[in-house]
Amino acid sequence: MSYQLPQLPYAYDALEPYLDKQTLEIHHQKHHQAYTDKTNAILEKYPQLAEQKAEELMQNLLACGLTEADQLAFRNQGGGYINHSFFWTIISPKKEIDSSLVKEVEAKFGSIELFKEKFTALAISHFGSGWTWLVRDQNSTLQLYNTANQDSPYLQGHTPLICIDLWEHSYYLKYQNRRAEYITNWWSVVKSI
Questions:
Q1: Global pTM value
Q2: Which 3 state secondary structure label does DSSP give 135?
Q3: Domain annotation covers residue 9
Q4: Residues 132, 123: contact at Cβ < 8 Å?
Q5: Measuring CA to CA, which of 54, 56, 87, 89 is 20 to 30 A from 7?
Q6: Tens digit of each residue's pLDDT (9 = 90 or more) over 65-111
Q7: Would you say 38 and 72 are in contact if contact means Cβ atoms under 8 Å apart?
Q8: Do the domain assignments include residue 157?
């Protein structure tokens, strides 16, 4: 088995004016495809892992049988594959509010508005490339945090619920150095909240 680049559930121009067609197309077809290809190249050496989901491998990275060098490579390339595969599912041109998630977020953060303020501030404060996440930890508690590069919440045994890609490739053609504007506009395409 090899991992495949997932098809987007919407057209490349469907998220405009918030995320532009050219950026989305390059982000998906070039960047995500490269992570997919490099992840497959790492795992070709490990046929015993062929049937495992990428998320399972990431959760058990230290015990899955990869060499130390390949663990690092999978953390980076496999993380890019996993994170992007998830990212495409949480953005959409149509809202599909998850009422149970909304209730959890309101209980944890006080309101959706306060949650968005905290998430946005955390994303804006992140230095360099990486991601901002809303996750459910091992105790089913909601947490907000940043990860560097392509690190995944699965490394900590957490389940991702919402994320924003803070790598420049996700916004630079439209927003250039205006990362805060990208982050603010991104809320317009988050489908679940």
A1: 0.95
A2: strand
A3: no
A4: yes
A5: 56
A6: 999 999 999 999 999 999 999 999 999 999 999 999 999 999 999 99
A7: no
A8: yes
β-sheet with 142-148: strand ranges across: 142-148, 130-136, 159-165
Domain span at residue 61 reads 19-193
Bond into 6 cis (ω within 30) = no
- The secondary structure of 37-81 as a DSSP string is HHHHHHHTT-GGGTTS-HHHHHHTGGGSS--HHHHHHIIIIIHHH
Q: Are 84 and 63 in contact (CB under 8 A)?
A: no
Cα-Cα-Cα-Cα dihedral sign, residues 8, 25, 15, 82? positive
Is residue 12 domain-resident?
Answer: no
Name 74's Cβ contacts closer than 8 Å, sequence gap at least 6.
39, 42, 43, 57, 58, 61, 66
List helix spans (H) across 63-147. 68-73, 79-90, 99-109, 112-125
Question: pLDDT tens across 46-57, in order?
Answer: 999 988 999 999
Number of domains in the chain: 1
- Whole-number Å distance between alpha carbons of 87 and 95: 15
Report if residue 11 sits inside a domain. Answer: no
Own/partner long-range contacts of 26-30 (Cβ < 8 Å, ≥24 apart): 26/169, 26/173, 27/84, 27/165, 27/169, 27/170, 28/84, 28/88, 29/5
Separation CA 167–CA 107 (nearest Å): 30
